[in-house]
Amino acid sequence: MSLRPAPHTPDEGLAIADQPSEPVADTAHLHELIGSVCRDERRFLGFPDHLGRVVGELAPLLAMFADQRPGPYSPDGVAVATRPYEEAVLEYFAALAGVSAADAHGYVASSPNEALLHGLATARRRLPDASVYVGDQAHHGVTRACELLGMNRVSVQSLPDGTMDPEDLHLQTRMRRGAGAVVVATCGTPLRGAVDDVAALRAAAAESGRVHVHVDATTGGMAAAHSDEMPPWSLAHGAHSITLSAHGLLGLPVPAGISLMRRMQIPATTAGITVPDRTVVGARAGLPALLLWTRLRSLGRAGVAALVSRCQDVAAYAEDRFECAGARPERFPGSLTVTFERPPAWVVDKWHLTHAGNLAQIVTTGPLTHTAVHELAIDLSVAGLEAIA
Hints:
By secondary structure, the chain is of the alpha/beta class. The protein contains twelve helices and 14 strands. The strands form four sheets. A seven-stranded mixed β-sheet has the order 2-8-7-6-5-3-4, sandwiched between helices. Strands 12-14-13 form a three-stranded antiparallel β-sheet, covered by helices on one side. A two-stranded antiparallel sheet has the order 1-11.
């Protein structure tokens, strides 16, 4: 008996027929879609976004075809007009990660998962026999990347605050002493927004031999870079490679990932063959880099810092309001993620809350405002009174 789900029958009004469709009708369909997503966006607190707010300023980029064939630093004879824009974006994120553009190597990927895959592939080239040590609250994309790369993954226990336990890491790496270790630290765990201490994890794994620390900072990197409350988390604190993202905070209409590593770790050749382009996919879309450049230029470094500060202020407000509502909130210092007791289904459905087990969360990016948090807190209070009754 096949376990494959039955194919989904598409909406008849959206089916692709033999003959061309009516452009006006199709445009109306798309406008209806955009309207339905943006009309009540404040209630999508589990998946906040900026759709409809900044797309207009980015729309002209859709009029061009940007195919990034080489990596941004590859000595390629084909002139790529968008390359300088990607280099400017990488310089910005290198500074956030604590290194200069001259010391960093990387590229803008089409998604954070692709950037993560690139970081772990780099670690495997350095330490081909090492296992990958991953906290049990890390993003599931790390497990998938290890499967694709054929790397042995070892789960490491977490502390109550969601960070990887250095003592358990020390124990796990001692059991495989001499093989080296690839340690995946997390800056912003998916559920709790916890930030691992890179320096502590690197020291804990030292007895295993050579160590490569990769930081998955997809969720928390932007907040960490603008906060004094975070533990050591970046390339400046001893990491060898890092994955970053900003499409959620900046409100891009497509995902974008940034893969960075210290340039000294990139060998000039592989098996005697010069390999100037070390991206995962080779040819890439240039649109994510252009979108990032456009938004970052429109905000400036000061504008991004102010945006992060506003999001952190909303998170602190949410923590306070949820505490008053009896929802027992938790928040890692400086994080944009607020975790709390999972409320009844009517609250989860109303606000489209992300949840796992007995916990739910909000992430204070996108359109999330103090007003929306206040209204959610009222519902949490009502749910608490219903539970008592």
